[in-house]
Specification:
Blueprint lengths: L1 H15 L27 E5 L4 H10 L3 E6 L3 H10 L5 E2 L2 H7 L6 E4 L6 H10 L3 E5 L6 H14 L3 E4 L6 H11 L6 E7 L24 H5 L39 H10 L1 H6 L7 E8 L9 E8 L8 E7 L32 H8 L9 H10 L10 E6 L3 E4 L7 E3 L20 H9 L9 H17 L6 E4 L4 E2 L3 H4 L14
Parallel strand pairs: 1-2, 1-4, 2-3, 4-5, 5-6, 7-10
Antiparallel strand pairs: 7-11, 8-9, 8-14, 9-10, 11-12, 12-13, 14-15
């Protein structure tokens, strides 16, 4: 076994040299970081955003660190978190929080709508604060590059909130492919049932008074000003969390605020392909199908085609992204009845509970578990619907076989699954994560960089965001990463950088 491992290292040496950033995946210590603290000291963490996803980000960090300040533009949305941390200073404007609490905080969580990620993170990094930024890292390509440059300049610890990059399955997928288990990979398919919020609308409800709990101007931030509306009178614009037309959740579907289904799920689902195939900038991207279009929102469903050139000794690869899926896409060569991506979670009636199999697995800590063939066979016997209605996942198609992974890179397995009956995963080549949030906290204290630090997250976000642009224009877009521009479509280039409303700046 030792000889086999060394031999793999010998043949994969050139490939592994570029498999992960030099500062990523625990491969090198973070030297001379700003605001260094001993690993035995607790970090003082502030959060820009306190409701929604920020609630769980804050709770995870609070298990071992101090929560020193909180900020949210909506008191109603933040109420539960504010109650839990009653003695902590609270603000509506993150700029004022960073000014007043500068000496009291070491690190900042950024969990806002996508259009404010870059501005909030930049203001924090300029002040020497380590940052954890929810996915997608930014709303535009230019902003992703700005944050990467700032992380290097200010020498702060960084992490994007795509938990799959910290999962065991993501690393297993990479190591299986590098070991040649399925041969050369020239095709990848990835899919999601998102959006689960409205998209494809063609009219905006009339203006209404702004709720007393919400600072609408601060919520808009860098975006163009517009009237507030709840949309409730029409009954046509549901918000899953009892909110309004734009927020706290529907903003994902609007061009000005979010990145659609790609922004919500691609940083999770495409994490394994990004790492395993060393994906950099594609040579082209094209939306080849879309339904339910809108002048101000992303379409109801779409299919996007990315074409990547050869990378080192890896051949060119074409990646297909499907969103708005009602079932797993039918992919040539996959045996009928084969589960792909997320496995159904049947314990405690999981498949019938609210949120679907993937969410149930996430809540119970099931995410990240290694594939178990006996468990898989037991599940096959318990359900007769093999292509169940929660289709998040990815499929690698090689010239010698196929591999599939789930939403967060979990349950990595060969296809068909019977190949896993007596399968042994390759010996580990990548350092394992101590846990997604602990990854970042350790980095903040001078330890190894987090798995999805900006050296890894910014280039990943950049190529994913090219798909977001492709949803807004027609035809194939050819991309020049050196010049950061599309070479054949001048209109598309205007979507690579945001417009800042008067009074707002990135820095």
């Amino acid at each position: 076994m030792a000889f086999e491992t060394n031999r793999r290292h010998f043949f994969l040496g050139p490939l592994l040299a570029g498999a992960a950033p030099a500062a990523g995946f625990g491969s090198a210590p973070s030297l001379k970081l700003a605001g260094y603290k001993s690993p035995n000291e607790k970090l003082n963490i502030a959060s820009i955003g306190a409701g929604g996803k920020a609630n769980s980000d804050i709770a995870a960090c609070a298990q071992t660190e101090n929560i020193a300040a909180l900020c949210d533009v909506d008191d109603r949305q933040a109420a539960a978190t504010y109650k839990r941390f009653e003695g902590v200073p609270k603000y509506k404007d993150f700029r004022r929080m960073l000014e007043k609490e500068d000496k009291n905080i070491d690190a900042v969580i950024v969990c806002t709508p996508d259009h404010m990620h870059a501005t909030c993170a930049m203001w924090a990094m300029e002040r020497g604060k380590h940052v954890y930024v929810q996915k997608p890292l930014t709303r535009t390509v230019w902003e992703a590059r700005q944050l990467l440059e700032a992380a290097r300049k200010y020498r702060v610890a960084t992490q994007m909130g795509n938990q799959g990059y910290s999962n065991e399955g993501t690393r297993q997928a990479a190591e299986m492919i590098w070991a040649g288990e399925i041969g050369e990979v020239r095709e990848v398919h990835a899919w999601t049932d998102r959006p689960i919020w409205p998209q494809g609308l063609n009219e905006i409800p009339p203006e209404e008074p702004v709720p007393e709990t919400l600072d609408w101007d601060l919520w808009l931030g860098i975006a163009e000003s517009r009237p507030f509306t709840s949309g409730k009178d029409t009954g046509r614009y549901p918000n899953r969390f009892g909110g309004y037309f734009y927020q706290p959740f529907n903003w994902r579907g609007f061009y000005d605020f979010g990145c659609g289904a790609l922004g919500d799920m691609a940083c999770h689902i495409l994490g394994a392909p990004n790492l395993a195939l060393r994906l950099g900038p594609p040579k082209s991207v094209e939306c080849i199908k879309k339904e339910g279009t809108s002048p101000f929102m992303f379409p109801e469903r779409s299919v996007i085609k990315f074409e990547f050139p050869a990378r080192g000794n890896m051949p060119p690869v074409t990646l297909y992204w499907y969103d708005g899926c009602k079932e797993t896409p039918k992919i040539e060569g996959v045996p009928e009845g084969e589960w792909l991506g997320d496995l159904p979670f049947l314990m405690s009636g999981g498949q019938g509970q609210q949120g679907g199999p993937a969410r149930q697995m996430q809540r119970t800590g099931y995410v990240g578990r290694v594939f178990d063939y006996e468990q898989y066979e037991a599940m096959r016997k318990e359900t007769d619907k093999l292509r169940f209605p929660a289709p998040d996942g990815a499929l690698f198609v090689g010239d010698k076989g196929m591999i599939t992974t789930g939403t967060y890179g979990e349950q990595t397995r060969l296809v068909p699954a019977e190949k896993m009956k007596d399968y042994r995963f390759p010996a580990p080549l990548l350092t394992r994560s101590p846990g997604h949030y602990r990854d970042w906290i350790r980095a903040c204290k001078g330890g190894d960089p987090a798995c999805s630090n900006f050296e890894a997250a910014a280039p990943f976000t950049e190529w994913m965001l090219l798909g977001v642009v492709a949803l807004r224009v027609e035809g194939k877009l050819e991309y020049d990463p050196v010049k950061m521009r599309f070479t054949n479509h001048s209109e598309a280039n205007k979507y690579l950088k945001p417009n800042f409303r008067k009074g707002w700046t990135l820095t």
